[in-house]
Amino acid sequence: MSSIIHALIIRQTSITLPPYKTVLNVNTARVVTSVKCNCVYNQSGKCKHIAALIHFINHEESLSKTCHEQQWGKPSARQFAKQKYSKGRYFDEMFPTKQKISYEPMTIDLSDLAEHSALRSVMEASSQTEDTFIIKDVVETIIKHTESNLVREDCEASVISFLIFKDEFEVYQAEYKLEEQLQQFYEKNIQINEETLINVCCKTIEQSKCEDWYANRRLRISASTNVHHIKVQKTKTTESLVSSFLHPRKIECEATKYGLRNEQHALHEYEKLHSCKVQMYVTGMTVCDLFVYSPVKHGSCTVRVHRDEAFIKHVILVSERFYFEHYLKSLYLESTCENDSNNNKTEQPKRNFTGKNIINVM
């Protein structure tokens, strides 16, 4: 029988980045049998984050004020013995129990009211208004459901057309030898057939308003943002770039607020030239229109972008290498830690503290 200890280790170089996830497997003799850490230095199973966790468990006491019963505001033992304060007043006299008065709602029948009474007129108008709202809700639900089905049909037809046209162009790819666990993870969670692809596209057509859109986006590299960062990688290290993809930050600024306010009025979101070219590679198009929206009258413009085969080949191969050599492994480790954490929430065996220090024999 073994115990699993999960910990979040704050990065020494940057406390703002997500902490490292470290896991220890400890047997009944308090000996470490296996370790996990999602830092890039844990290739051999030995890193300072694991050492820090073992040192913390053996030397620190994680007691806080909340571990003890609060003491402030309690009467003294003498006051409890007398059941009254020194002035001679009993607690019941100082804090009498408040009587709660409850009122039952009264039911009024319209037939009991006078024909031209004000209350009857109000109740009749309220009943008619309620019926109107119910009918309106039913009609709006039917319209919304119909529109959703029409949008899904259009989306499905468009995706099928893209799948047909893409076969006319060359697919740029390289061979990568993956470990058996990574290969299984890739085939199970990332590689999908055309039927599943069409379903995912139709379910995530609302993009940021849909939970599945974030889940599928996290498993892959997006053309709109990730590809550009990979291509122009200069200041960020590969580790920080992978971390930013796995844990994207929600940016709240005037520019994003402006974009959200005007999103429904624009035909397409503003995208950079390289992302259009990657989308042309995916969909098999030779020309696409880049639409830049502006609320100013005659301020919007359309730029025709032509397919650049040399540029596309370079970007696709660079992004593919980054994905299989760096991102996929981090994604697998992250998913494994999340699954272990979810499993431990359901099964928590009783543990007895032996007083012995944890020993790392690895």
Q: What is the gist of this entry?
A:
With 362 residues, the protein is of the alpha+beta class.
Kindly, what is the distance between the CA atoms of the first and last residues, rounded to a whole number of angstroms?
18 Å
Residue-averaged pLDDT: 76
Globular, elongated, flat, extended or rod-shaped: what is the shape? flat
> What is the fold named in CATH at topology level of the domain at 169-346?
Lambda Exonuclease, Chain A
The succession of helices and strands, N to C, reads EEEHHHHHHHHHHHEEHE
Q: What is the CATH class of the domain at 169-346?
A: Alpha Beta
Radius of gyration: 32 Å
Q: Which range does the strand content fall in?
A: 5-15%
Number of strands: 6
Could you say what the CATH architecture of the domain at 169-346 is?
Alpha-Beta Complex
Number of helices: 12
Unreliable residue runs = 267-274
Percentage of helical residues? Answer: 40-55%
Give the strand order, joined by hyphens, for the main sheet: 1-2-3-6
The main pleated sheet reads as: 4 strands, mixed
